[in-house]
Amino acid sequence: MGSTKHEKSFVDFDKTYERNVIGLSGIVYFGIGLFFLIVVAFGLMWALQSVLEDYTLEKDKANANPLMLKDKERLPPEPRLQAAPGFGVDSPNGRVSLELQMPQAEYRTLQGIWNEELSKGQKQKDPKTGAEMVVTLPINDAKAKLLEGNPAPASGVNDETFKKSQMILSDSSAGRLTSEKRR
Question: What is the reported pTM?
Fold first, then answer.
């Protein structure tokens, strides 16, 4: 028996190293097959997503809850955090959104509204007639209007009432007589 060589073997027993044989065609076929498998899986997932979205929309329309809260109703009650959705101020011209504004924005907005109401007065619509009515007036206008409606009495007519209003009950009369005059 001489040398023992195996037939159809890639191993050369005469050399001290093993020859590296790579089957390139197998790797290429596997890569192409993997690519087509990924494309088909992507297409199927895309189709499944569109079918499920359509199904969800149909189900939501069929099961619409009439008592479901609107977006504004879902917000927590006032006061809210300044960075929270829905943070704002109700003004006569509508809601002023102050989301993500500086912290002083609420004060400055309210101060402007209050100054305008003090200078011009506050007006509201009458719910029955729809006419605009004045709710508050500036102080000077209110004083003038009050004096227009209540003219001062003629002198001498109410002098007795005025004198009685100046008298007070003292401790010395034990509440029986008005003896002292208010200063």
Answer: 0.37
